[in-house]
Design a protein that fits this description.
The complex is a heterodimer. Chain A is of the alpha+beta class. Chain A is built from 17 helices and 20 strands. The chains are: A alpha+beta, B mainly alpha.
């Protein structure tokens, strides 16, 4: 038989009938047990300890893995769900924990928990995971170090169910740092078995979950969607009520807003502040906003190069900022004003600086420093919805005191490179630390260790001393005194002008309950309810 | 014919080599530090240097190029940092989504534009001609993302006729086993009519968006080309020989008018692949366009190179197809020249 065009077409047409795809649907959870989340972009890995992991990977770590400890939920003032209290911890994998009498170690008793693979969680797995976090490099190791967790020798297996962590120094952030999303526990046997030559199984864990957490990843299509299913054998907390979570990545914010307004999506993350304000005003869906702990939108002024070496000019900028206008025009009121605070600071961060808009004072300072000049203001194009109107207002305000500002907007990839150079005179940026302590924020943004977030390149041994003192003291009075002192110091020195503490907003249907805010700012599915 | 295709293929090799070199150089010349971006928050200079070493970005350009070409020869387009997956796998997963959308848009545009263009030419100066002009003008003056958002607003948000713009398939629908990657075809192969309907209704709005955008060139080209042919001697001769109007227009004029239209179609198709980028963003379509844009924002070199290369190969293949089609439509067209 010769194959003609006609027979070929006929064969093609009959093919659908011949190939019978009898894929029987597994018993699917009903819509009321399934949550649809829409977000801007999803995880680029399943391993938060891995290098280059994006922000949403925190959500994977949070829901699919367990840590020794977790933050205790406390109600959000004004309702809407729960936030966390940084100082209050509860056991996740740890059934109990005991600080040594000398305060230099802590012993953890493990709960009877099983991995998704069916293996029991042992102290050996915990040690392997903590060892990995402090040794793997990149963000994970930096974050561990922030709580004085630096060396594998610090983690000691006592027996199958007991682990001791030895402290290098007394650090109040050690235990809270065990509750953030980095020190989660892997099924070490599964990881090693699949890791090949790599002792930390980076490739395997990037694409596979090997944990004991409340959810498993059913399917992961990077850039499209991530589907989670509940782990019915989870013992480290109350069994979550949602059986299945579908997290769709939708780049367009207007589409995300339309979906939540129409009621097709249950939860929407990461909308521009204006949309959250409109949604909150309309009242059809719930908008929960938590002021981001340890988070501030600030204008960093370079203290090492350029005109702002002169502290008087930095103060002048702080006196001329149109704080209220910025809060309304760029954050649409979704934030806390950082101006007009008391002369004597409280033991808190962030808190309003004593500056408020006073053009005469600012002008006098500029004149005293030798008059006006031209400079540039840099911000990350990825933050443009907020930073763009903000920078225009700054430009306008500074013009009134003779400072001519040119705005420079750079894409995210270049922005990191730019702030790393530490040569830009003015930079607008938002920084938020996971651990909610004033000394922690200043350690990253103003300390002499000159991290990438010390955008002002601020160097002051007096400040370093106060910050270090506050970080490692066990005495409350000393702590309070150091905090007040260093905030007083930055009030005068102003390497950064705080503008507003932004709120972390989430829009959800009225039928959704149990919202839980986490410092990593990713959704915690374990507490959510529907209907 | 095969010989002709072979010869034609040979001429494409230099262009592909050119594309490989240019994309490699461009991605290196563009500002932006991949290593700094991927070192993430709280990165120390050491961490950034470590990543730069891991990505091979610290080596001299010729060495980077050599390793790129070597990998390319093995079909390895490198690793995407934004999705964390091999670029080849990403592109293979996303290309059918884009192709399905683009083809649907193009077919829809053709279904409207060809008859409209022909009618406008035949009844020159009539209301159909004016309509044709209005449609074409409106189509080109609306940016695709605007049309997209407008359609979503009207048909999804206000009227609720269209399903949620959540990509290729409703969240609760299950995907068919992937055979061709074209959801509509795969659904038919799996004999899942319910799923076919779901996938089809997801496709309507984005396809219409693309179709509106591409109506103008096709209509105008069809009209102009038909007018030229209708004025030609052979049409007059055919009419004079007493052939019916429909026979003259349908068989003689239309067929001859098709040559420039096919060229236009080829161009429109490649424009559409580009216009896709914004439509994919609005409709959360998991295609190759949105993939490339996200990679570009993140200074993620490998996917950008992969995208440009794929596009170049597709463009070359498309042109080859058009050349072959020329010969089919008009046997006088020979490709030796």
């Amino acid at each position: 038989m010769t194959i003609t065009r006609r027979t070929a077409i006929a064969a093609g047409l009959s093919l659908p009938l011949a190939a019978r795809g009898g894929a029987a649907q597994a018993q699917a959870p009903s819509r009321s047990e399934t949550l649809l989340l829409v977000q801007e972009y999803g995880p680029n890995s399943l391993d938060m300890q891995g290098i280059g992991s994006s922000q949403p990977v925190n959500g994977v770590a949070l829901n699919c893995y367990d840590r020794l400890l977790r933050f205790k939920p406390v109600p959000i003032p004004g309702g809407g769900g729960n936030t966390i209290a940084m100082g209050e911890l509860e056991g996740e994998l740890a059934e109990s924990w005991q600080l040594a009498s000398d305060g230099m170690s802590c012993t953890f008793k493990l709960r009877d928990a099983t991995f998704h693979s069916g293996r029991k969680v042992t102290a050996k797995d915990v040690k392997w995971s903590l060892d990995r976090a402090v040794s793997i490099g990149g963000f994970a190791t930096t974050q561990m170090n922030a709580g004085s967790l630096e060396k594998p020798e610090q983690f000691v297996v006592i027996d199958d169910k007991t682990l001791r962590i030895d402290f290098i120094r007394k650090d109040k952030m050690t235990l809270p740092n065990l509750a953030v999303t980095i020190p989660f526990v892997f099924d070490s046997e599964l990881a090693i078995k699949n890791g090949g030559d790599d002792p930390w199984a980076k490739d395997y864990l990037k694409n596979n979950i090997a944990g004991s957490g409340a959810y498993k990843v059913e399917s992961w299509k990077p850039g499209v969607e991530t589907i989670y299913v509940r782990n019915d054998a989870w013992t480290c907390g109350k069994l979550p009520s949602l059986r299945r979570i579908i997290a769709r990545d939708i780049a367009s914010p207007s589409t995300r807003r339309a979906l939540i307004e129409r009621g097709d999506a249950d939860i929407s993350y990461g909308l521009p502040p204006k949309d959250f304000k409109d949604l909150a005003d309309a009242g059809k869906v719930n908008v929960v906003g938590v002021p981001i702990p340890n988070g501030v939108w600030g204008c960093y002024l370079n203290t090492q190069v350029g005109p702002f070496k002169d502290a008087r000019l930095r103060q002048a900028v702080a006196w001329v900022m149109p704080y209220e206008k910025m809060l309304q025009a760029s954050l649409f009121g979704r934030g806390v004003d950082m101006s007009g605070g008391p002369e004597t600071p409280k033991v808190a961060w962030p808190q309003p600086f004593p500056y408020k808009t006073d053009v005469a004072k600012a002008k006098a300072l500029v004149d005293a420093a030798g008059g006006g000049f031209s400079t540039t203001l840099l911000f990350d194009a990825g933050n443009a919805t907020v930073a763009e109107p903000m920078s225009v207002l700054i430009k306008e305000a500074l013009a009134t005191i003779g400072i001519n500002v040119e705005i420079s907007k750079v894409p995210g990839a270049n922005f990191r490179g730019e702030i790393q150079k530490k040569t830009n005179p003015m930079v607008l940026n938002r920084f938020a630390g996971w651990l909610d302590y004033p000394d922690y924020y200043l350690f990253w943004t103003m300390h002499g260790n000159n991290s990438i977030f010390n955008i002002a390149a601020y160097q002051n041994p007096a400040l370093d001393k106060l910050v270090d003192e506050a970080r490692f003291t066990a005495d409350k009075a000393t702590y309070d005194k150091s905090v007040v002192e260093f905030i007083k110091l930055v009030n005068v020195e102003v390497p950064m002008v705080p503008i507003a503490q932004p709120t972390h907003d989430v829009a959800m249907q009225k039928s959704i309950g149990g919202y839980q805010f986490q410092p990593c700012r990713e959704p915690d599915f374990r507490y959510l309810t529907k209907g | 014919m095969l010989k002709m295709i072979g010869q034609r293929l040979m001429t494409t090799i230099p262009s592909i080599i050119g594309v490989i070199i240019v994309t490699f150089l461009l991605t290196r010349v563009l500002p932006g530090d991949t290593a700094a971006y991927f070192a993430g928050p709280a990165a120390s200079p050491q961490a950034i240097a470590e990543i730069r070493g891991k990505l091979g970005l610290d080596r001299p350009l010729p060495v980077q190029f050599a390793s790129y070409v070597t990998a390319l020869a093995k079909g390895d387009l490198g690793q995407s940092l934004t999705t964390g997956q091999p670029v080849t796998r990403d592109i293979a997963a996303r290309l059918p989504a884009s192709a399905e959308l683009t083809l649907a848009g193009l077919l829809l545009a053709m279904a409207v534009a060809l008859p409209l263009g022909v009618l406008a030419a035949v009844k020159q100066g009539s209301w159909i001609d004016h309509l044709c002009r209005i449609v074409a003008t409106a189509g080109v003056s609306l940016p695709v993302f605007f049309t997209g958002l407008l359609l979503v607003y009207v048909f999804y948000f206000l009227l609720g006729w269209s399903p949620a713009p959540l990509g290729r398939l409703d969240v609760f629908a299950s995907e068919p086993p992937g055979v061709t990657g074209f959801l509509l075809i795969d659904m038919l192969l799996a004999r899942d009519l319910e799923g076919f309907r779901a996938a089809f209704s997801q496709l309507i709005l984005p396809a219409v968006t693309l179709a509106i955008f591409s109506l103008a060139p096709i209509t105008r080209m069809t009209r102009a080309s038909m007018l030229a042919v209708l004025g030609a001697d052979f049409v007059r001769t055919a009419r004079a020989s007493g052939l019916t109007n429909s026979k003259v227009i349908g068989t003689y004029a239309f067929r001859n008018a098709m040559l420039p239209v096919v060229t236009t179609l080829g161009m429109v198709f490649s424009f559409l692949l580009g216009a896709n980028v914004l439509v994919e963003k609005v409709f959360a379509w998991p295609g190759i366009g949105s993939y490339a844009v996200e990679a570009l924002i993140a200074s993620d070199y490998a996917p950008i190179q992969g995208f440009v290369l794929t596009m170049a190969v597709m463009y070359v293949a498309l042109n080859l197809m058009i050349d072959v089609l020329y010969g089919v439509i008009d046997p006088r067209v020979r490709l030796e020249g």
